[in-house]
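Section: Multi-chain targets

For targets with more than one molecule, the full set of components is provided together so that the structure can be written out for the assembly as a whole rather than chain by chain. Components appear in the order listed by the source. The example entry contains two components.
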Amino acid sequence: MSPIDYLQFVLAPQILNGLTLGVAVVLVALGLTIIFGMLDVINMSHGEFYAVGAYAALALGAAGIGFWFLLVLVPILMIPLGMAAERLLIRPVFDSKDRHVTTLLVTFGLGLIVEDVLKVIFGANTQRPPTPIPGATEWFGILVPNYRLFLLAVGAAIIGGVAYVVYRTRLGAMVRAAAFDRHMAASLGVPVSIVYAGTFAFGVALAGLAGVLLAPIYSVFPTMGRDFILLAFSVVIVGGMGSIWGCVFAGLLLTQVQALASLVISPIWTDPIVFGTMVVFLMVRPQGLFGRLGHA
Amino acid sequence: MLTIRGLHSHYGLSHIIQGIDLDARPGEVIGIFGRNGVGKTTLLKTIAGWVTASDGTVMLGEHGLCGLSPDRICHAGVGFVPEDRRIFPGLTVEENLSLGLLQVRGRPKQDECRAIDAIYNRFPRLGERRHQLGTTLSGGEQQMLAMARVMVGEPRLVLIDEPSEGLAPMIVAEVFAIVRELRNRGAIVLLVEQNVHQALSVADRFHVVERGKIVFSGEAGVEADRTRLMQLIAV
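Its structure, encoded as tokens over all components, is:
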């Protein structure tokens, strides 16, 4: 195979696959990192909220609601779910001494319950919603599925929108201030408990939106959250817990490493490379590449 | 009018504030003096809602502050400049200032812009550095920012904890000039300060705190009261 053919038929499709996976992981990790950066809570049920979003889209889609409307409806439906989880499970233990362990275990338990509830309601079989945008576009001789192009564009828009709100608006300044120093933020008039609940709900809504967007590509099954959440945790840790740009950078980097490594080594070894990178970062640079939300 | 009656607060099992009574009128600066660890900072934190009062009342005009969350205490008209300034490191000077605007709900955008512009006119250095991260400022500039952040609101009571700590004498003079401005605007200022001589230059009255109680109260302009103050706080 000539170098040009290798580039066109092996390398470029692999990079594109990595990019699609990268955007997908970033969409899932975005909510995770915002919740961590803001509340200092590791939300172990985040993957299950992603699954709930996908199943909600599946069920509502089967009831006749169109995909485009679902992109708006499902995140809106996820907001009260997130608010309820924050109020009933996080808030009561938030000020306890063992907050980190307690919230981790509580959200882990919630994730297990949600997963089982999904199994009971929808069954354990894998389901695949129809692709909302069929067909493919040829780019330099490579066929790229239209829905993946749509995902890349929408993913970039969502990431840009979230970054704009967090880094360029007063609401974002309130979130970052409360993430760094909740007492001082409150003494300036920031309604910290509302900001906390809102941030948690927003993170959950983002997970739900990711579920709607990714269901047509990665299918829907009760344990779908677990597959993504491990990669999403790696992204959050490497990028810097709470950093949006860190999340984007690490998400795209790690998935490209995974995609390109599989060209030269057995794909079995790509996951250990990603998780090994996470472990190295935890040992050497625990604050990640970009540091935490609200910190300089 | 600020009225504090029988105020108590605890850190865990430690009884820090042990029944403080205090009154202040609008436009008064009240110095709170005492040795380290007697509860001066805790008194301010209790009024600001950072520490929950275990007993007693704090009234600012018609508003009872005890039991309220710090954000609601802020909306009731209380501004707090804590000891370590607490500038948000991930926020620019302007973003830090803009949070101070939250104290007044429903203020029109134009009024907010005017309030920020007034601060930049008053503190030109902050205006020059509006897009810099707050924690890249010098210690003195950070103190100005911490006080300006409260001034962009409309506080009726300002709690200021050790504003001169670690600052050059010129900056200290500027800090106390700001305290006078707050007084001239009609705000009540509770000032905790180790630099007693400087604090007395702006204070109208003062209280000496020992083991969480007020043990002496005096007028800043009365020589006998100042002499007694010095005897009480001399190490």
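Chain A has eleven helices and two strands.
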